[in-house]
Amino acid sequence: MADAIFLALSVITIGSAIAALELRSLIYGSISLMGTLGGIAGFFLLLDSPFVAMFQLAVYVGSIAVLILFTVMLVKRELIFKKIEDKRRKFAGIGLMLVFMISLGSVIMNSGIKSITTDEPAVDFRNIGADFLTYYWPALILMALILAGAVTGALVLARREDVKNEQRTD
Amino acid sequence: MSNELIDFVIVSIAMLGIGIYGLSVKRNAIRMLFAVEIIINAANLNLVAFGRFLPHSGGQTLALFSIAIAAAEVAVGLSLIIVAYRMYQNIDIADFRSLKG
């Protein structure tokens, strides 16, 4: 059975995920998305993986949520508060969500993972570092290259060509 | 450990459903990015939960990779949204029509 901390965390996570999609203002939506990401970090702490939890806090809550917040502030004021959706598609979307949840949930409830519990000690985070530097080192280098390429690509994409920089000397 | 694997998997399924709802209903580009983030986080939760209950360090390693790639995806996605906003002065994806035949 789940304990009280788990129930509170799941209420926070799922509630703020719904709020992130349904709140009228995009700014409040991105702040409640922060709540969802922080709740997931709490789940990682419950699962005895503090390293991933701290990574989640640093990367998601620390940088991605702030990046989204700054992008929202670049958008016109009336677009932030406008809700763009059709009523008919909303009911279809709720139906799709329920179909997914019920079908996946019933498959998993009837499968063997329902009774899995563990008494074994958690994985030490030193093993993760050893994994990164031995078996996964090509993937680590590839990930670094992808990150560098993505950041460069984002800067190139968002650059404005119609604005002249007065302070440039060339 | 008092929590079972099935609890975490159920939370993850709920977040997947919410994300699919957001992707199919919302036409605001930034909100669709929110929905993608929620789905990615559901997947990460599954990875770490299965890695804890096996127990094996591969789940956490893969979750770390996934978080880093998601950060790159958000940076590129947000800059694409900014470029499209500059071109169309709107963030409604029904207005992004230049690829429509």
Task: Describe this structure as you would to a colleague.
The complex is a heterodimer of chains A (170) and B (101). Chain A is mainly alpha-helical and 170 residues long. Helix content of chain A is 73%, strand content 0%. Among the domains of chain A are: 1-83, NADH-ubiquinone/plastoquinone oxidoreductase chain 6, subunit NuoJ (Four Helix Bundle (Hemerythrin (Met), subunit A)); 126-159. The mean pLDDT of chain A is 88. Chain B has one domain: Helix Hairpins (Orthogonal Bundle). Chain B is mostly helical and 101 residues long. Chain B starts with a helix and ends in a 13-residue tail after the last helix. At the A-B interface, helix 1, helix 2, helix 3, helix 5 and helix 6 of A face helix 1, helix 2 and helix 3 of B.
Give the tally of structural domains of chain B.
1
Question: Given the helix and strand composition of chain B, which structural class is it?
Answer: mainly alpha
Oligomer: heterodimer
Note the beta-strand portion of chain A: under 5%
Tertiary shape of chain B: elongated
Count of distinct strands of chain A: 0
Low-confidence stretches of chain B: none
Number of H- or I-type helical stretches of chain A: 7
Q: CATH first level of chain B: which class?
A: Mainly Alpha
Question: Which pair of chains has the greatest number of interface residues, and how are they split between the two chains?
Answer: A-B, 87 and 73 residues
Task: Tell how many strands the DSSP assignment of chain B holds.
Answer: 0
Strand fraction band of chain B? under 5%
Proper CATH architecture of the domain at 1-83 in chain A:
Up-down Bundle
- CATH topology value of the domain at 1-83 in chain A: Four Helix Bundle (Hemerythrin (Met), subunit A)
Query: What is the residue-averaged pLDDT of chain B?
Result: 89
